[in-house]
Amino acid sequence: MLQDLPLCIDSLIYLKHSRSRLPNHETYAACVAGKKGLEIGGPSMLFKTTLPLYQIIKDLDGVNFSTHTAWEGSIKAGRHFNFIGAKKGMQFIAEASDLTALQDQSYEFLLSSNCLEHVANPIKALMEWKRVIQNLVMLFHFSSPVLTYMDSIKARIKLRPNVSGTKSQW
After folding, report:
1. Do residues 140 and 110 lie in contact, with contact meaning Cβ atoms separated by under 8 Å?
2. Domain ranges of the chain
3. Sequence-ordered list of residues with C-beta below 8 angstroms from that of 125, at least 6 positions apart, any chain
4. In Å, what is the CA distance from 66 to each residue of 44, 63, 102?
5. pTM greater than the 0.90 cutoff
6. Which of 36, 76, 137, 160 meets the CB 3.0–4.6 Å disulfide criterion with 109?
7. pLDDT per residue over 61-76, tens digit each?
8. pLDDT per residue over 14-59, tens digit each?
9. Domain spanning 2-145 has what CATH number?
10. Is-contact 101 91, C-beta < 8 A?
């Protein structure tokens, strides 16, 4: 069963453009049904349509990097994360790789769609995401060129001291 896997990653390119449901979406749904989760960079159309999870989630909080985004306009922290219908969760304003406002293992799952490729330090982000979830159940979607792009950047960048004077964490 999918929930027994330590990490559930779905990187199928067609999901972004598909108008149909993901085959076996019921298997994914079993990982989140009736549970409390966190979404980084949402809400996402993907989890309303192709992989319909919002409808069966008990509670979902959201994290966005700014109080103003191109896709949502103005947002504010607090109980304002409207992921479907009248369902609302907590909206956190934070960078995806810095979730210090959230307690360890405070969520049962994590969702993210087309977010990781925009994070300056994706490895640090994944470590933070792992910290805030209980059973390492993550479902996220990204375009496959992202991994190749991140790997090529990491290979070309020489680690330089950051603002605090410590080495960057890749």
Report:
1. yes
2. 2-145
3. 40, 96, 97, 116, 119
4. 16, 9, 17
5. no
6. 137
7. 999 999 998 878 899 9
8. 444 456 777 777 888 888 999 999 999 989 888 888 888 999 999 9
9. 3.40.50.150
10. no
